[in-house]
Amino acid sequence: MAEKYITEEQRAKCRKVADAFAELYELADVMVADAGRFGFVRLQWFSEGEGFDSAMAFSDSMELFEELWRIWYEHEVLTPVLGTPLAELDYDEIFRSLSKDRQEEILEKKKYFISRCEDAFA
């Protein structure tokens, strides 16, 4: 019998996390695929003929959440400043340069994603 790398419990939790970030897949060049007994795979930077440039496997829902949150956060913080001198700063410096309202929106979005995952971290 083939070895399993993810428990059924973690599989369900990872599915919940992947589903919670569905809107991210429309915003950025990223997707999460169920890889069966191997867990879930984050695929990023697709190019025709070459496929995905980056793949990372996950068997823990919290690690998957943190990865997807990082991608969402970086997209939301960096995209508005591309082509400006602010784009040279690190993401947290860019975040601090945003208006307080925008900072709060981003922090609220993390709370939203956490609420969509509900028991995926228990």
By helix and strand content, what is the structural category?
A: alpha+beta
Number of strands: 3
Low-confidence stretches: none
Number of helices: 5
Helix content: 40-55%
- The string of secondary-structure elements, in order, is HHEEEHHH
Spatially, the strands of the biggest sheet line up as 1-2-3
**Structural domains: how many:** 1
* Overall geometric form: globular
Mean pLDDT: 89
Largest sheet, if any?
3 strands, antiparallel
Rounded to an integer, what's the Rg over CA atoms? 16 Å
Beta-strand percent range: 15-25%
N-end to C-end Cα span = 29 Å
Describe this structure as you would to a colleague.
The longest helix has 18 residues, at 61-78. The chain is α+β, with helices and mostly antiparallel strands and 122 residues long. The chain has helices at 8-20, 22-27, 61-78, 91-97, 100-117, and strands at residues 30-34, 40-47, 51-58. The protein is globular, with a radius of gyration of 16 Å. It is 51% helix and 17% strand. The chain has one domain (6-116). A three-stranded antiparallel β-sheet has the order 1-2-3. The two termini are 29 Å apart. The mean pLDDT is 89. It has five helices and three strands, in the order H-H-E-E-E-H-H-H.
Descriptive terms for the model:
three-stranded antiparallel sheet, single chain, 17% strand, 3 strands
